[in-house]
Amino acid sequence: MATAADFSVKPSEIDPIDVSRKELYVEDTWQEAFRQLREHAPIQWVPESEFGPYWSVSKHKQIQHIEALPKIFSSAWDKGGIAISGSPELLEKYNMREPMFIAMDPPQHTGQRRTVAPSFGPSEVADMKAEVQQRTAELLDTLPVGETFDWVQKVSIELTTGMLAKLFDFPWEERHKLTEWSDFGGDVELIKDEGNIELRLAKMQEMGAAFAALWQERLANPGKDLISVMLQSEAMKDMSPEEFIGNLILLIVGGNDTTRNSMSGYAYGMSQFPEERAKLEADPSLIPNAVQEIIRWQTPLAHMRRTVEENTDMFGPLMKKGDKVVLWYISANRDEEVFDDPDAIKVDRPNARRHLSFGYGIHRCVGARVAELQLHTLLEEMGKRRLRVNVVGEPTRVPACFVHGYKRLPVQLSHY
Question: What keywords would UniProt list here (predicted)?
Fold first, then answer.
């Protein structure tokens, strides 16, 4: 039995709080629930939820430690994977086989990640800069100033979907399908209803068929896109259809929902903290740090999940083999022991990079640099045009505990 007293927590002092309830996110009222958990029950057993029982982990230090121990806390897809919604029972009942490298343990994870990682390396990302800059500039120049429009649709979705289409060399005129597939692939609420499960499976099969056709094209005429990279690698060239679909879901949801909601978080967050916005407008050198702070504050994926591989009491309470463990990044990024005044955006926050929005350890987001590049470029191009986003109505938020983001955000642009 694994133990490590340094990371132990006191027994839960409060009744279980189920922070997987979608109401907390659609109403944006999750902050107090997690504050209570961090203070009184950093690791708490939640015996009942719509996703089944789970351990809720809400502190930065314990989450990092769990992420660093993949032999004890598994990400494997066949044990439940990386979202609270996954379960071996659902897998068996609906044949929901979607293996992806983020939902694998070493050594299989290692080979597949090494295949994809070079496409997101420093030199590759640097090569993307000019095109990202051009597409961002062109889009911003089409936006109306002084008229209300939906920032999510016009800016966040358009920029991130365009980047995905380029990474996959996906048909440009059909790029809207990537957004639709991403929305279905990342929606944990769909597993609560049999009809929605079937609909999601159908959408994932549709996606798989479209990419299978591209795979055949690239076999004959390979390029530098992600599909060509996968089919030319020893670790991924012989993937099963289910594994192919699983990795597509990972790359599409990871590359779309996360960056999309950070861009929307920038628009919404800067309107909530106008003094910080003024600071950023006055000093563009703050942009790199502001990018990290916005990603911290927004936390576009609220959680990741692990499954206990062996009984452990390293944190105090006994976690048993097979237990579901939910790591609440959204709470770790508001941990008062790590971040001063954590609910506020501070564009010059000295330790903004300590956020866990990209995860930690072997599963840290492989596309983090691309996400940062896109957000950095958006802020930079907004600054060049002296454009300011003004939120003019309440956002419509994603009603779920996994993707933490916005469905609609009414805004107007002005000059400063």
Answer: Heme, Iron, Metal-binding, Monooxygenase, Oxidoreductase
